[in-house]
Amino acid sequence: MEVVITTAGRAAQLAADVIARAITRNARAVLGVATGSTPLGVYTELGRRVSAGELSLREARAFALDEYVGLPAGDPRSYRQVIADEFVAQVDIEPDAVLAPDGAAHDLVAACADYERRIAEAGGVDVQLLGIGSDGHIAFNEPGSSLASRTRVKTLTDQTRRDNARFFDDDLAAVPWHCVTQGLGTIMEARHIVLLAFGEAKAEALHQLVEGAVSARWPATVLQHHPHVTVLCDEAAASRLELADYYRETFANKPVWQSL
Ligand code: F6R
After folding, report:
1. Which residues of the chain have pLDDT under 70?
2. Which of 31, 35, 145 to mutate to test the pocket of ligand 1 (most atoms within 8 A of CB)?
3. Is 178 a residue of the active site?
4. How far is CA 170 from CA 44, 173, 193, in A?
5. What integer pLDDT is reported at residue 74 of this predicted model?
């Protein structure tokens, strides 16, 4: 696992570099996209590069991580809609090439199995963007999630519902209790995982992810078993990392031939 302590702006550029390299290797690369506040700078940077003619996602495909259960189609808070507004609208990817779990399906169990099948049919995810919850979740795999889990229905923790109430006019009662989320086992199959974390509220979760014991108590720790994870974080999120100086030295002295 590589930890890069930098600014949010530089982190967005580095994450966009990883995606651009994947597209250079294969124009039909499969991207894993996250919602929430954290990846917004990456989408803005990708949009800038597309507008400048430096990058095209025209042939790329993408899968979202998760979705609330119970929001009507087109609800601006639904993650499908957020991805459409924040990612698809800024770049030149085909809207039909971007899929999200169906949290409004009549048969949620079948919809979860279908989502897994579609990811596999696309050949798996090449670059997966992740944020991290203050309780250590990735996607919506809350504490206690099986480290081998697949796409399924989960119940959100009180902490996550409070954290996300800001997207629901601070009305906690309006935040859904349930979601459909890619499992930890699903996410672990992505070839390269780029996790971004900004702000003091993420400091403990980031410390656990990088330096804690692997445990369902802090679901993101499963990433310690992945061979290619890049953590891009700011100073505040890094404030509880015990080996922060070592991560800084490692990145500062990275061999020039070695990309992220
Ligand atoms: C979103 C997702 C979540 C968020 C996490 C952090 O698709 O899967 O795991 O990444 O809740 O959210 P923000 O970025 O809003 O702090």
Report:
1. none
2. 35
3. no
4. 25, 9, 31
5. 87
